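job 3f2a | input accepted
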Amino acid sequence: MKVLIISLFTTWAIAQTSSGGGSAGSIIVAPNGARIVSTLGPGFPSGAVTGVPYSAMEVTEHVQTLADGTHITQPAQKSTLYRDSQGRTRVERSPLSPLAASVVADAGPSFVEISDPVGGVRYTLDVKNHTARKIVARFADPPPQRQDVVPGSASGKAVPANRAILSSDQQLRPQFSTESLGTQIIEGVMAEGSRTTVVYPVGFMGNDRPITTTSETWTSPELKRTVLSKNSDPRSGELTIRLTNISRAEPDPSLFQVPSDYDLIDPQPPRVVR
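job 3f2a | predicted structure (274 res):
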């Protein structure tokens, strides 16, 4: 169980890095119940992109291969994404449970999230109960970087904590390499591809053989977002997230508003967004 969680987190982290960071969006549910944020979905107002409207379907597929060769294919999870010229986003998500998603795949979204960078708010809509929750964003400066002293360093000067960790045992550092995959048309838009390979050496996590993972990311400079990502990890399997049915038309403005027949419940105090 721990190996699977670590593996999935690593895959997500690599995808975030290779796609240039980005904010969180759709939630992926692993076979063990762990929830992972998709690298493709739009997030809180801090990641707003203006002047580039679009709508699309996001499809997440996960296939795991066991040691005996058995393949476990999870039901595809689908989310509908919208972004208008003002940078407002809307995500319509199906049930988070893979089993529930396969049973009610055509029943429509059960959860909707609207992010409005213009008003600095986010709404989560409960479609079944016709209720809406409002979160007000308050932006803050990033916290100062934690400083630690590298054990045994000659100078004794403080260095960032992550550098201290990497310097503790140079031989057990994962080896990263990135290569360009050129460009190609994906769902009607030009995308630039890259592949990141990570090799975890023997002993890094108790492994007696090197472990190699790959993350392939295709990003559209025009849409300013990732349109396809493929992550391969021998511990967790193949994870593919792609956009389909991409439209460049301006979405209906009503999609970014709370319906009049919804009840606004539990207004929350401003949430600090770093």
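job 3f2a | The chain has one domain: 2-269.
job 3f2a | closed
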